[in-house]
Amino acid sequence: MLRIAVPNKGSLSEPAVDMLREAGYRQRRDTRELVLADPDNDVEFFFLRPRDIAVYVGTGTVDAGITGRDLLLDSGAEAVEHMQLGFAGSTFRYAAPVGTITSLDQVEGLRVATSYEVLVENHLRTHGVTASVVHLDGAVESAVQLGIADVVADVVSTGTTLRGAGLEVFGDPILKSEAVLIRPASVTDDEVSAGLETLTRRLLGVLTARQYVLMDYDVPAHLVEAAVALTPGLESPTVSPLHDRDWAAVRAMVRRDQTNKLMDALYEVGARAILVTSIHACRL
């Protein structure tokens, strides 16, 4: 069986479970379950702490896992990113009291508080900055006010929490993170198992189904070329003649976020009966 590690709690857990379920895998109904076998798909799931998943994957204890890019890099584990999963996006940045620091080189000799010690130390070293890294498990934004650090490095979404603590971000982002599927670093692209290849195709199918819809419309035959220029599809749209030979039916995959703009443009070209259908699953 392919052994897959899944986050057991936190912001990564529910989206990961939803994605695996959409990909056709059985998922647990009771959050107290730590191991779940899916014999129909020849897969076994292990529900682990998000921070530990990269370690288990890196040692080969499990064959693959879902975690955050930030947690992967901070773990120092012998695991690599296999594919991006398109959820749990975040930005990792430095912050300091308002008006005190504007660039990374000013961090030289200061104290930096973070929950991502390895990630921050590597980033500072890469940029030639020597600073003392203070490890905290949480509430990093309070470190400056409490006097144990001069700078913090943490995940930033809206920045509201930092501003509430009298801090502001500075410099370029340390990292842009999201959920990723990882595998052991010892497994090369050519050595990926059939089970992992199947998992990859299924997850890619879910991503595609979430990003695209099917668009159908009727258009006068002499306007087909103008219409399909707007909806070229992935390879090429399907064009079929209607009973009234002066009209044709067109079907194409289009990006979900462009749906209404395309419908407006097609209507202006002369298309009618424009319909949009969600895609439940696909293989490319």
UniProtKB/TrEMBL annotation:
Catalytic activity: 1-(5-phospho-beta-D-ribosyl)-ATP + diphosphate = 5-phospho-alpha-D-ribose 1-diphosphate + ATP
Pathway membership, UniProt: Amino-acid biosynthesis; L-histidine biosynthesis; L-histidine from 5-phospho-alpha-D-ribose 1-diphosphate: step 1/9
EC number: 2.4.2.17
Localization annotation: Cytoplasm
Major subcellular location class: cytoplasm
Record-linked InterPro entries: ATP-PRT_HisG_long (IPR020621), ATP_PRibTrfase_cat (IPR013820), ATP_PRibTrfase_CS (IPR018198), ATP_PRibTrfase_HisG (IPR001348), HisG_C (IPR013115), N-reg_PII-like_a/b (IPR011322), N-reg_PII/ATP_PRibTrfase_C (IPR015867)
Single GO MF descriptor: ATP phosphoribosyltransferase activity
CDD domains referenced in this protein's UniProt entry, alphabetically: PBP2_HisGL1 (cd13591)
Domain ATP phosphoribosyltransferase catalytic as annotated: residue spans: 49-203
Keyword terms of this UniProt record: Amino-acid biosynthesis, ATP-binding, Cytoplasm, Glycosyltransferase, Histidine biosynthesis, Magnesium, Metal-binding, Nucleotide-binding, Transferase
Pfam family, one: HisG
Entries under PROSITE patterns matching the protein: ATP_P_PHORIBOSYLTR
Cofactor: Mg(2+)
Protein activity control: Feedback inhibited by histidine.
Residue ranges annotated for the Histidine biosynthesis HisG C-terminal domain, each copy included: 209-280
Function text: Catalyzes the condensation of ATP and 5-phosphoribose 1-diphosphate to form N'-(5'-phosphoribosyl)-ATP (PR-ATP). Has a crucial role in the pathway because the rate of histidine biosynthesis seems to be controlled primarily by regulation of HisG enzymatic activity.
Family listed: Belongs to the ATP phosphoribosyltransferase family. Long subfamily.
Family matches, as HAMAP family: HisG_Long
Protein name (Swiss-Prot/TrEMBL): ATP phosphoribosyltransferase
